[in-house]
User: What shape does this take?
Amino acid sequence: MTPHKLIAEIEDRGRAMQIASALQDLLEPPPDALTIFENKVSDDAPPIWRIEAYFSDARTASDIEAELEALLGEAPPAFRSDEIPDLNWVALSQAALPPVRAHKFTVHGCHDRDRVPQGPNAILIEAGEAFGTAHHATTYGCLLAIDRLSHTRTFRNILDLGCGSGILAIAAARSWPNAAIHGVDIDEQSVIVARENAAVNKVGPRLRYTCGPGVSSPGVRKDIPFDLIVANILAGPLITLSPDIRRSAAKGATIILSGILNREAPRVIAAYRAQGFSLSSHQRYDGWSTLTLVKRS
Assistant: This one.
């Protein structure tokens, strides 16, 4: 199949961010790469947010529109298709991404290294095969939650469940320098990328990564209980995993959950309340929820 991209243009920024996040987080399989940027035609015209999703499979614009409608429960914007040259277009598209500032953290690629002040809160995440660049509301929300907690709490044993690119484990390592941090992902390529990113960000020796089925992985079980668990996955798996997360969390532990559409948040909250957690914070970003909860007992 010739590589191609599907393009949508949306006037409302929040709506554009919601669609971009759904494309990346909910489609199965997701696009090979995705960009979103402001496209201002003239000084007098309102800005248009342009989404470009890159695919190497045979899905058409109508296929994607139907998938999004089923996932979001509402009509999506119209997409159009455009063929592209057979280049390393995953990396090329990611190279257009600007830095993301999430309170103290600045997440950037190599192309912005010279423009971003380098320090303990600058996180380098290069274009790669594992999701997690902070441009999506789910990762962004987790970074903000980590930043908030870093001002008031100290954690000693941290789990990044479904670590992807490893960005959240890196942020945790920067926030709690004395903590032991374990990342786990069922996807082997994600674990490879996460290790590479940890090394590039000079926290490699402090982070341990495991490829396996979450908290049931032998390498993770031996580190239980955790006093902070971060899980940026999806609502369905989070609900299914709620008993395992309860068993893996120490008394008084904090958990950060994301990958949750706003309309799905009540179900996730109810599942975790039934497991003995109380809701501490419910933050909403561009149609997605990030939950912070505390284990009561």
